[in-house]
Amino acid sequence: MEAESQIHPAAPPSPEQRTSVPAGKVWSLLPAHVFLTGLITWLVIGEWTVIAGAYTEGLQVVGFAVVSAVLTILVFLLGLPLRIAPPLRRWWIRHAAWMLGLFILGAAGVVLSYFVGHAGPVYYDEVADWPLTDGFEPDAGVFGSSLVVLAFATMHLRLPQRRRRTRLR
Question: What residue spans define the domains of the chain?
Fold first, then answer.
């Protein structure tokens, strides 16, 4: 009986069966998504504080973590329908390149926030004589919105699926 099934293989799955993704598969990478989102947002918030010259004490690291955790929870909740609703989940899996594009857009926005809008040097009155500037601050609106886009894309990032070749007979 086994030899017969090898000679006559089963019919290939229909396109609907092939593209449907079980719910468990999208949840399997959630711990990695949460960790990477928290790490990336923590690092970006930290670099903003250091570049702006506002880093003054070690306890600010805890503040970075709190802001990063709140942002991570927020983008998880915003993207929860992508993981729960089957039609949205199918769209998310089929169009994984959109999240990769959003990730690149968010990272580029964070970098560009230092060059556009109200970005510029920071001066503190306490040390007005030296140094010439105390830091460089990004445009808050561009930086904040880019950070949210970067966090959302990181939380829901999936690598695009490889396309299968169909044989012509």
Answer: 25-155
